[in-house]
Amino acid sequence: MRVRPVNTTARLAFRSFWPLVKGDRRWLALICGCVVIAALAETAAILLFGELTDHALQKGSLDAFWAPAAQWLGVAAFAAVVGYVGNSTAVWVAERFVMRLRARIFAHVQDLPPHFFQRHRQGDLVERLTGDVEAIEQLVVSGVVRTVSALFSTVFFFTAALILRWDLALATFVLAPLFWLAARQFASRIRTAARQERVADGAITSVVEESLGTIVLTQAYNRRRAEEKRLDTEARAWMRASVRGARLSEMYTQLVEVIETVCVLAVIGLGAWEISQDRMTLGQLLAFAAFLGYLYPPIRALGQLGLTVTAATAGAERLLEILAARPAVSDPPVPRPPRQVRGVLDVDHVWFRYPGPDAADTASAAAPYALRDVSFTARPGELILITGPSGAGKSTIARLLPRFYDPAAGHIRLDGTRLDALPLENLREHITLLPQKTLVLHGTIRENIACGRPGATDDEVVRAARDAAAHAFISALPDGYATHIAPGTAQLSGGQLQRIALARAVLRNAPVLVLDEPTAGLDALSARQVIAPLRRLMSGRTTLLITHDLRLAPDADRILVLDHGRLVESGRHEELLGRSGTYARLHGHTARPAAGS
Ligand code: ATP
Fold it and tell me: If you measure from the C-alpha of residue 353 to the centroid of ligand 1, how many angstroms do you get, rounded to a whole number?
């Protein structure tokens, strides 16, 4: 990723994320109001402190103590109430901001094309949606509140200092830019360390997540040490970055202490000269030195704020990178919802290539075509079987139909309407995709089936399960339809999960059915159990069956054979076998082991 200067990123991030505060701006104004009042109260306390020193302490008069002391207490109590209201509202607004930001990034991620998820490690995305999102809050909500607080405190305190001793106040402020210079020196190094820490955080989450996902491989192939080493490498990178960040912060804090000492010494030196000239008493000097204790924290906070913002920009860059990834498809500007979809699919001279590795959102010219000039038509009630060697482009067709991507050239039409003219949600309602990998949601079996059609009744769920030959095994489970399942669940076999997915598809009742290797990974018995309900599901619909398994080939109305992205053969099973081309060769390969089994 291109590295931008700190200020540019901070400004860009602020502009991108500030709109999320919309709706809470009056609360933000209230917080800023509280912060300003708190700064004013502290200024009043400083002036009362000056009064106490001048009248009660210097003159040793207890009578002069009570009135300013009572006022000071009153101001402190008022400041405490205002401080409580301001700070607790600030936390509430900050958390709401984090919630909205996370929801916005999450919603954006939902629309991104499949290749985005193949190119970003899942753990890293998780880290961006959690840790990085919270870092941005420091930049926007807390950043604004702290800037207002530090700026107003500095202005008020400086005015108070001028009232107390204008000459000493000016001397103090001449040295104030030293704080700013110190913060500037550290800014870019702190951002680099913060960026490395955020990246390492993401890498650690990724390694843990990937390791847990491949635990069987790790155990079966004795890869435990290799996995531990992988985690160790990332953990060390994280530790280095985090220690470097902490060291830089500590160095900055200590440097600020030294600068403060220089300022106090300058005031004392100037005071000593003033006393020697009889223009000042020791009491006044001590009072002013104590006053510096109030004055420097807001000045220091301004410098510190720069560093916090700097560190937060490291997280902001990572979120901006996600927001920069564009969905591969979008709703048409003037969508044309179809009245009633019959399911006539027309694939018309379609060319397609996947976005290249460097192109986040557009097709790279260097990527080879996965589909080349593919044309065919599928009508309701037809079973079209698509087969071909591995990498021929079969699954790519399945990805174009629900518009995960649009073709580079050519068109696909549903009942004569181009897919990109249909509202996305509407199009996807009419196409049921059963992908190669059985998709399981976190929830009960009932929820897993019912998500095929939101609002489905329990009776409809059971009927769909019966049609998918899943009812018997679901009923035999101790919790039946209320059994909890999750991705990677061990409770059910591959064939059983596949039948749950089929029940979901039955319930969806869409006119177009796209099945991508529905029997892959299943043994002969499980495959047979899936094939019968599959045949029922296909009847009356437009079905595209993508498979290497040619057991269903004799039933197909047409077989399309793809090779290197081209449609090389098309016809019925017997017809293609007679041609002794690619299909006959493929059939020979799949038929042989079946014969032997
Ligand atoms: P298989 O039978 O092994 O599943 P397939 O015929 O379904 O193979 P596709 O998955 O359609 O093949 O892939 C067609 C071509 O597109 C292959 O060369 C593959 O490497 C490439 N491809 C697939 N997915 C992507 C992707 N996300 N990014 C880049 N190239 C891809």
Answer: 10
